[in-house]
Amino acid sequence: MKAIGLKVARPVTDTNLFEQTDIETPTPTGHDILVRIKGVAVNPVDFKVRKGKADDGNFKVLGWDAAGVVEAVGENVTLFKVGDEVWYAGDVTRPGSNSALQLVDERIVAQKPKSLDFATAAAFPLTTITAWEALFDRMGIDRTDVEGNKNKSILIINGAGGVGSIAIQLAKLAGLQVVATASRPETISWVSKMGADHVINHHNPLKEQLEGAGFAAVGYILCTAETDQYWDVMCDLIAPQGRIASITEASENHNVDLLKAKSASFCYEFMFTRSMFQTPDMIEQHKLLSEVAAMVDGGKLQVTATENYGSLSPESLRKAHELLESGKAIGKITFTGIEG
């Protein structure tokens, strides 16, 4: 089967960054299903893994957002059958979705929304799982208590990115007042379209802007930008007994005692945790993706795919990585799959 990947980490400007080649078609066993990829999307994790690629000569296939059709199933599979149309983010410890076919554990897969084509559907899984787990699993927001959440607020840092775009919508559906950050006219317009009640500029002091919007503090903060950059200000802005979640790693040591007097908490969200450690609750990702599919088909969630780069190829994939690395991407970049 055909696959696109790399053997050596190179800068994104290198026209030979990715190569397409033929690799062995895998056979599903156990809980694995074999999916023929019809749509893929890119995320920051793609270029982070790419940059960290060891110079070991091994061919690395990236890509952790996909939609496609089940082509074969392992002997323990009970959730799917051949011909099912599915979507998923996959497992960062296994070969990715930038290939014609991919093995993935059924417990982190769901039926894709019927109302979306494959490429558009592929924009959802990774960012949706990340936002859902950050809001509802990590910070413990009760998404069923819409009335009770109306007096609660959340600050979403970098609201125009893939995770921010979904997090705004999920937080609004849960009843929260949403403040999102954006700086350019096009990103301000985007986060407003996603449903943010207030938009503030992350290039300017956040405290004054929050106060100007009527918030002395916020009960929840979701950081989808640089944890290092926002640590001190998040500790300042969080309300007593509030909760902070971040999806980006820190490279500096930070003073957690800034949260002590407020009895506030901080946690990380990494959507690959369940698959990476084969946690007993892996199937929760199947459940949440199933629920989100129904929400999409019911018109409750807006599409976050903004650009389609056509058929997946080494050059189109390089261009997508280049835009992601620039920090100027809005929403999600998608592709149709490769055949063979």
TrEMBL record:
The keyword Zinc applies. Coiled coil: none annotated. This is Zinc-type alcohol dehydrogenase-like protein. Belongs to the zinc-containing alcohol dehydrogenase family. Quinone oxidoreductase subfamily. Pfam families: ADH_N, ADH_zinc_N. One of its GO terms (molecular function) is oxidoreductase activity. Residues 10-335 form the Enoyl reductase (ER) domain. Keywords: Metal-binding, Oxidoreductase, Zinc. InterPro entries: ADH-like_C, ADH-like_N, ADH_Zn_typ-1, ER, GroES-like_sf, Lipid_raft_assoc_Zn_ADH, NAD(P)-bd_dom_sf, Quin_OxRdtase/zeta-crystal_CS. The keyword Cell cycle does not apply.
